[in-house]
Amino acid sequence: MNHRPLIGINMDLRDSGKSRTPHSLASTGYYDALLTAGALPIMIPPFTRESDMLPILDKLDGVVLTGGDDLDPRKMGLSPHPSVNVMCERRELSDRLLCKLVQQEKIATLGIGLGMQELNVVAGGGLFVHLPEDLPKCIPHYDPHGGAHRHTVTMRPRTRLAEIYGPGEVRVSSYHHMGVRKLAPGFRIAALAPDGLIEAYEGKDANWWVVGVQWHPENEGHISLDMQLIEAFVEAAGEARHSATHATPALARVG
């Protein structure tokens, strides 16, 4: 029986409210898309200690960093903004740890929406807090009424994204008011919106398959072009388990 890549999905976390205890959850789109692409999804709870997170990562072939609410601008040295819907603090701590570890362990990684922003920040990049104010000439990147919004992105030539989608433009599902202001040193631009905003990046390190996209391929159903991205990620994750860096147990490396 062929090995199906094990792909971790970090879970969202909702604080307690009226008649509700804290609970973790994940959008069905993430694990349904991974199943369709031939992977087995594994949920990653919002752990905040390396000693809890590393034994899980050691068993995984890849990680999807999911969407969600906003990073806290104050933790990035930025001013608060009324548009920001700050995520649960425990999730932010857990996500930052996960972003650090996937980079350290060179685990195949696909960052989506918030996940793409988090990975960029942890790797040394920076964000716009609210695009309509920070980038006044930008196109709409979200529907203020909460509905579906789509716009085009253009793939950069000779990038992994161009190989996956083909050259030129594709239309993507977009709903974000934050965006990448400064790209982390280990990444390169893979796709741009018409206003010049970075919509996707990929890693420069040939030994680490990593792609971050601002759009949401998991929302597109299983017949769209975006399944090509999920399939390429799953294929890369399956191949990564044979590499020397991923074959050595993580716990052994950290002593």
Describe the structure.
The structure is a single chain. The chain has 255 residues and is α/β, with parallel strands linked by helices. It is 30% helix and 23% strand. It is built from 9 helices and 13 strands. The strands form 3 sheets. The chain has a 9-stranded mixed beta sheet, sandwiched between helices. Helix 2 crosses helix 3 and helix 3 crosses helix 4.
Question: CATH homologous superfamily name?
Answer: Class I glutamine amidotransferase (GATase) domain
Number of strands: 13
- Low-confidence stretches are 244-255
Give the overall pLDDT as a whole number: 86
Rounded radius of gyration (Å):
17 Å
Task: Compute the number of helices.
Answer: 9
- Give the biggest beta sheet: 9 strands, mixed
Cα-to-Cα separation, first versus last residue: 33 Å
- Number of separate domains: 1
Return the structural class: alpha/beta
Please tell me what the overall shape is.
globular
CATH overall fold name = Rossmann fold
The amount of helix comes to 25-40%
As an assembly, this protein is single chain
Q: Which architecture name does CATH use?
A: 3-Layer(aba) Sandwich
Q: What is the CATH first-level class name?
A: Alpha Beta
Binned strand content: 15-25%
Strand arrangement within the widest β-sheet reads 4-1-5-6-13-12-11-8-9
Please trace the helix and strand order, writing H or E for each element: EEEHEHEHEHEHEHEEEEEHHH
Report a brief summary of the structure.
With 255 residues, this protein is α/β, with parallel strands linked by helices. The protein is built from 9 helices and 13 strands.
